[in-house]
Amino acid sequence: MNKMSPMERVAPLWPVLALLLFSVAPAHPSKCPKFCICDNIQLTVACTGKNLTEIPPTINEITVKLDLKGNNIQELPTGAFLHTPYLTHLSLQRCNVRSVREGAFRSLGRLVFLNLANNNIEILYQESFDGLTSLKQLLIDHNRVEEIQPGAFSQLGFLNLLSLTHNQLVYIPNMAFQGLQNIKWLRLTHNSLNNLATEAFAGLLTLTRLSMDHNELQFFPTETMTRLPELTRLDLGYNPMTYLGEETVVMAKLTHLFLDHMSLQDFSHMALVQAPRLAHLDLGQNQLRVLQPPLGPEKLARLVLSGNPVYCSCFLRPLREWALRGRVRLLGACAGPPTSRGRAWRPCTPPTCAARARRPC
């Protein structure tokens, strides 16, 4: 009987050993694209400022944070991120993006943060954001967005912040934000909005803060605002409104209202009757000469009137007495008479007012 040498006995085991070695090799080998910086511990990839024209196809599949800002990716095609399904954060600002095709993000069901700021996007299509079912923050600031197609945000049920500042929106149609079931803050500042459909904000039942300053609204959108039952903070400063009439603000939970730097010349004392919880009202930098004590908001604690041409005469007595009774802090300075110009408000005391009442104030 022939005896096998030790080497002959080991030889049949080599295929098994090789198989074991390959089986314990990393399932996701590092695939860092050229010109990118990859962190295989934090699972992040940064390809910034490299003039890339497309999404690098060799990014590691298990990457969770991808930073592509400062490139030249003018179009995001359908399925652009099929090879990176585990992304949670994606930055695409300053990439000259002009078009987001339907289904571009369809594979990114884990994404919670998407930054598309500082691009050239003009239209938000119906299915532009399909697949982003976990997204919480969407930034589309400093683009050229002039149209939001119906259903553009229909799959963003977990979104809590949507920012569309510095775009070219003129009109918000009915149901434009349909699907945003958990939205908390909507930012539309620095657009050219001059008209809002009555149902523009319909369905935003969780919205607590709306920023629409620096637009072209000439009238307070009373009917549109009634569709926001949970809104507590509304910023409409820098809009060319001249007048607020009776029962203009019909918002049961509103606590902070900013109407500064407008063109207000008249503000009805009944304008806030339907805003019982208002605590802070900013009417600074307008054209108000006289203001009657506003009725309605019993919790008002701060009223800003700085920068208005208010004449410190007996006409201020009712407002001053109302503020003293309600412990409302008035912020403003006298525009006249000359001896009082620039001073913090010190309306005349009742005896002085009584004396002045015998002659024109």
TrEMBL record:
PANTHER family to which the protein is assigned, alphabetical: ANTIGEN BSP, PUTATIVE-RELATED (PTHR24369), INSULIN LIKE GROWTH FACTOR BINDING PROTEIN ACID LABILE SUBUNIT (PTHR24369:SF213)
Species in which this protein is naturally found: Anguilla anguilla (European freshwater eel)
Entry-linked Pfam families: LRR_8
Tree of life domain: Eukaryota
Gene3D superfamilies: Ribonuclease Inhibitor (3.80.10.10)
Listed SUPFAM superfamilies: L domain-like
Residues spanning the signal sequence: 1-29
Keywords, alphabetical: Leucine-rich repeat, Repeat, Signal
One GO location term (cellular component): plasma membrane
Protein name per the record: LRRNT domain-containing protein
